[in-house]
Amino acid sequence: MSDFSIEREDGEGKGRYVVRIDGHEAEMTYTMVGTRQRIIDHTGVPDALRGRGVGEALVLRGIEDARAEGVKIIPLCPFAKAQIERHPEWQDVVRG
Q1: How far apart are CA 34 and CA 44, in angstroms?
Q2: What stretches in the chain show pLDDT beneath 50?
């Protein structure tokens, strides 16, 4: 899907996924709720990176990691929520 790499940075109860391209940085941040739920709370893609599928790739990576780790996603970020609604195959990790 993408020709760029996504890095994951985990902190104390929070984290983010980051893409860096040509000096620009896109990110999707999350907050852990306990050990089994992850709130996606923000996705930011600068104008210079729009139209490249960066935002969708960030959400997909979050979905894939949640699935692999047995974690449920709570998409509070409007962008992430819209992307998840467009992809029925991602619904298995969304807390309903």
Answers
A1: 25
A2: 1
